[in-house]
């Protein structure tokens, strides 16, 4: 089959590789000049299937309101742009019900575990060499946070996800660079999870896809997708016909969906990151994290990527690319200084803001759009890197007319209608 893939972020690159590896003739359209140039550019790098979960969760609406009053925290509303997202927020609020959240979290966890397995297979079989390390530690500052974490730990145990509940002393042995002055009640350590450089992986997998015949067309923005007997792609004034078209273009997919008369509640939820070199001091060999830690209170991740540290978090609804929320950035710096004071070279810090295309209930949408030959691989939110390899494999199986390799409950388009 001749297949077009729209978008070359981590989801688009993995999809292009899987389709090319299956023997399809693949053309990839990307509006930027390289792969992983937008949402995938500076993400936290976390690969932790056990902690992939929807932002729509019990207690989150109240937490959002409290944060609005305090003007601090991981989930914020941009006052100027939020009005256009009210329908999305309504659906998000409804998805925070316990039963809906449990269904969606289980679906995301199944997909994340498949993705982890596929990522390991590709890394090993293709001999990919990108920055990555094992271990993911969730830090719980208080007894209250530990109590709130227990239902999630029960689910991890039921699903067979390896983890350890650590006391503060043991947590500091796992991550010896943690500041002994910062209060710590307990930690959840996931030894098989970890962190990896998403952009490096995407660049290397793009090379592998190209060697299998995938044609990457950079600096090309798709203007319209046509549906009929077989779909068409209009770009740079030229229309081409394909046997299948797969949309992996994140928030940029919205106008293309409109051209197909498809409505999908896909919205950009903005995330922030700060990346800086780690200090190199012989007297303090454990500056910074060994792998990755997650601060449960502020919902912020601190990751080690080679000799750099990246602190990432926040979920800003209704924001814009050109307007930075300084409070969100201060929260990132606060968490970094709380746990690893003086670990990074502040004068060389680079900040980033990126749109994470999200569906209100949490899981992505995978599979047919309902139109002949048009497929969807969209809405991964903050979990794109953790879900990409599994999503791509699922999509490739479906395009080939084979059964998906996992239960697709809560992952199809029909749930959003």
From TrEMBL:
Q: What InterPro entries does the record point to? A: FAD-dep_OxRdtase, FAD/NAD-bd_sf
Which key words tag this protein in UniProt?
Oxidoreductase
Keyword Cell division appears in the UniProt entry: no
Gene3D superfamilies xrefs: D-Amino Acid Oxidase, subunit A, domain 2, FAD/NAD(P)-binding domain
Source organism's superkingdom? Bacteria
- Annotated EC: 1.4.99.6
Q: Which GO terms describe its molecular function?
A: D-amino-acid dehydrogenase activity
Domain (FAD dependent oxidoreductase) ranges: 2-397
Query: GO CC terms on record?
Result: cytoplasm; plasma membrane
One annotated GO biological process: D-alanine catabolic process
Q: What family does this belong to?
A: Belongs to the DadA oxidoreductase family.
Q: What is this protein called?
A: Putative D-amino acid dehydrogenase, small subunit DadA
Organism field: Rubrivivax gelatinosus (strain NBRC 100245 / IL144)
